[in-house]
């Protein structure tokens, strides 16, 4: 029972390709994923910073399989490794396997053996396999050389984080996706007063969206000042 419960833990509603903000740095990767990486590679390894969007892309790929009536297993090791390697038995028979947060178990011999066996099984059974970690697979401190080499059996791509001015563009784009617009004045106000990182801006957007719907008010500079002054979790620039 534990094995089944841990599969697809951490799947977030709304993580689809259509909700992923594509920067020029990630355009090639998105093209490969949308066309179906398994047409070219038996497995694919995504790596990059914590907030780059790796989990979003793995879950989006799983969602596409679900939409086709196929089975996919999403396994985030950061939260699932506590259940032990036996949980990987639950991916048998799935049409797609996506293992996230590999960093959580690298260096642990039992996990490396289990994951090496999983890679071997996916290859033998022609199951597409997705892997993701913060670290470049060529630089991972693996205990087992055979496991290290198997991480490179397919293609590997860095997922570049949204940064700088792209964060504001992503915020405006996400608002449009939700059905409302942020005016130029509002965007300039946010640029002057709030940190330009995706975690802060997306949390801010969620809060503003929910509060504006609840109060039936449009998002303006005055509304942001009023609402965000009461929200101590979002830092304000000095």
From TrEMBL:
Residues 167-228 form the Hda lid domain. GO terms for biological process: DNA replication initiation; negative regulation of DNA-templated DNA replication initiation. It holds the Pfam family Hda_lid. NCBIfam families: DnaA_homol_Hda. PANTHER family: CHROMOSOMAL REPLICATION INITIATOR PROTEIN DNAA, DNAA REGULATORY INACTIVATOR HDA. This is DnaA regulatory inactivator Hda.
């Amino acid at each position: 029972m534990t094995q089944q419960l841990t599969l697809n833990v951490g799947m977030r509603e709304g993580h689809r390709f259509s909700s992923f903000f594509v920067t020029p740095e990630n355009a090639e990767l998105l093209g490969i994923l949308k066309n179906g990486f398994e047409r070219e590679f038996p497995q694919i390894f995504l790596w990059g910073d914590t907030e780059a969007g790796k989990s979003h892309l793995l879950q989006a790929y799983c969602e596409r399989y679900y939409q086709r009536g196929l089975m996919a297993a999403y396994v985030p090791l950061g939260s699932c490794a506590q259940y032990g390697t036996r949980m990987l038995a639950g991916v048998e028979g799935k049409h797609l396997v996506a293992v996230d947060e590999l960093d959580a178990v690298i260096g642990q011999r039992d996990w490396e053996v289990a994951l090496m066996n999983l890679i071997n099984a996916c290859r033998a059974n022609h199951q597409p396999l997705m892997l993701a970690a913060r670290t470049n697979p060529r630089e991972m401190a693996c205990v087992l050389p055979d496991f290290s080499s198997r991480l490179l059996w397919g293609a590997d791509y860095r997922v570049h984080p949204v940064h700088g001015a792209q964060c504001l563009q992503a915020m405006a784009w996400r608002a449009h996706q939700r059905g409302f617009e942020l005016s130029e004045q509002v965007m300039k106000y946010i640029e002057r007063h709030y940190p330009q990182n995706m975690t802060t801006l997306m949390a801010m957007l969620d809060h503003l969206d929910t509060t504006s719907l609840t109060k039936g008010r449009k998002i303006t500079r005055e509304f942001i000042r009023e609402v965000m002054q009461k929200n101590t979790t979002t830092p304000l620039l000095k």
